[in-house]
Every structure is written in structure tokens, then in C-alpha cells.
Amino acid sequence: MPNIYKRKSLERAKWTEEQLKSATSTVKDERLSVRQAGKTYGIPRKTLERRKNEDRKKKLGPDTTFGAAHENRLVWHIKEMQKVDLHLLEMICEP
């Protein structure tokens, strides 16, 4: 007779979105600690820590080749060359 799998963990996300928003706002405003907010609103501490640290999350994708200043300078240069009737983008994008 086969064993029937029974989930051992409890139901997930027993809190509402409003509770989560108010808990994260109290933590970000430093009115309550993460642990106290978790107990008050009934949300796991790790969930609140993860939501709190989402602001510092590194952006996805590789680093840019040029910095913002270099990219702006390159855009300015291309626009200036187009004013002189040197169509760089048309030459680059030709098939």
C-alpha cells in the first residue's frame, strides 16, 4: 500500500496585503522592530526582513558598458554629428 504524502508545513500567507503594507511601513519608519512588527501583525520575521531589504536589491542584468555621464556625452556627440548632416545612426543601422 503506497504512502500518502501529507504536507507538514502550515498554510502560507495567512495575512492580508493591508497587514503586510502596514507592517513594512512601521518597520521602515522605525516605529517597531522587525520582530515586534511580526508578532503584532502576525507576519513571519523573515518575510518582513525580506520586504524591508527589497529597496537595496541589486538590479538585474549585467553592468552597463558606459556610465551615465559617458552615455550622455555619446548621445550629445551623435546628435551634433546629425546636425552637421553626418547620419551616423543610418550608417550603423544599414543592413
Automatic annotation (TrEMBL):
Organism encoding this protein: Acanthoscelides obtectus
Chief localization: nucleus
Q: Where is the composition biased (Basic and acidic residues)?
A: 46-61
Q: Where is this region: Disordered?
A: 36-65
Lineage per the UniProt record: Eukaryota, Metazoa, Ecdysozoa, Arthropoda, Hexapoda
Domain named HTH psq-type is located at 16-54
GO terms under cellular component: nucleus
The record's subcellular locations are: Nucleus
Q: Name one GO molecular function term.
A: DNA binding
This protein's name: HTH psq-type domain-containing protein
